[in-house]
Amino acid sequence: MIERVLAIETSCDDTSVAIVDRTGWVHSVVAASQDLDHEIYGGIVPEIAARNHSIALIPLIEEAFKKANMNWSDVQGIAVTNRPGLIGALIVGLVTAKSLSQAKHLPFLGVNHLEGHLLAPFLRDDKYAPPEDFGYPYVGLAISGGHTSLYQIKGLGDYRILGATKDDAAGECFDKFAKMAGLGFPGGVRVDQMAKTGNPEAFEFPRSMIHDDTFDMSFSGLKSSGQRMIEQLGPELVQERLPDLCASFQEAIVDVLIAKLDRAAKVFRSKRVILTGGVSANSRLRARAQEWADKKGYTLVIPPLRYCTDNAAMIGYVGALRMARGEVSSLDLGPSPQPLVTDFR
């Protein structure tokens, strides 16, 4: 019987390893950031990401066992992200998982990265646990650099995509604006920090599709508007007004996300809602979402920051649940950039 798994996450630029059991308890989670390696290029370089994964992964596995005070006899399987993500990065995690599966005589399972995000609110440790009344079904907004989508989550493997961005993801929009404004990489975090001292009403930015009778979103127009505003102001004025620019730009994204989440909760009469994914670490979004939930009487669950960004704990939880019901992957499983958002198989 599968009780506990070793999990590997290498879908993008962060290398992460965790030991998780099927109750969601995280015995350990460790990670290696690559921000400094990609900062000089202003964005993630796939080849560098893959190389760094290959360097960091085995030491992180050893660290995860040490931190949990466990060894290979304490896990019954290996979970690894196999989609979606950067192909080269995914290959490193997959090949490592397969090799360890063979060497340690343990089953392994490929896990959908997005499914990990959708179930991340169930993770628990010494400092975090979801509310006691939290459970299925719920509405979830998954927001990251590559994905911005609304889901109805009815149970493990039972997901319905309600809507998604028609173009750019919210995280990509944050990062591109940060680059145009000279804030560098990682952009989303720096926009959030700069916006804390700014006026969110100082500049007017578009909120595309906010009133549409759908759950879909669009952020390409906002990104273009941000570029035009920066060009019109000029370098000196941009630096002078940077906090206001960031706060106003950020508010436009947050307004759209909250509006779509509100619509989904109403239409599906869901009293339980979640925010998940890297952009759910944004402090303004978290604060606005909590205000909205308190006003509406909804139970809002947002994982702590360590479980919002890409992490192996969420991959391990999904893997442990699926392996406990008999699912395993074959050695011919390959990586894929495609999410298969409707069924996660």
Descriptive keywords:
43% helix; Nucleotidyltransferase, domain 5; 345 residues; single chain; alpha/beta; 12 helices
Tell me the number of structural domains: 2
Number of helices: 12
Q: Look at the structure and give the mean pLDDT.
A: 94
Question: What percentage of the residues does DSSP assign to strands (E)?
Answer: 15-25%
Largest sheet: 5 strands, mixed
The CATH homologous superfamily of the largest domain corresponds to ATPase, nucleotide binding domain
Walkthrough of the structure:
The protein is built from 12 helices and 10 strands. The protein has 345 residues and is of the alpha/beta class. The chain has 2 domains: 4-128 and 307-324, Nucleotidyltransferase, domain 5; 138-302, 2-Layer Sandwich (Nucleotidyltransferase, domain 5). It has a 5-stranded mixed sheet with strand order 3-2-1-4-5, sandwiched between helices. It has a 5-stranded mixed sheet with strand order 8-7-6-9-10, sandwiched between helices.
Short summary:
The protein is of the alpha/beta class. The chain contains 12 helices and 10 strands. The strands form 2 sheets. The chain has a 5-stranded mixed beta sheet, sandwiched between helices. It has a 5-stranded mixed beta sheet with strand order 8-7-6-9-10, sandwiched between helices.
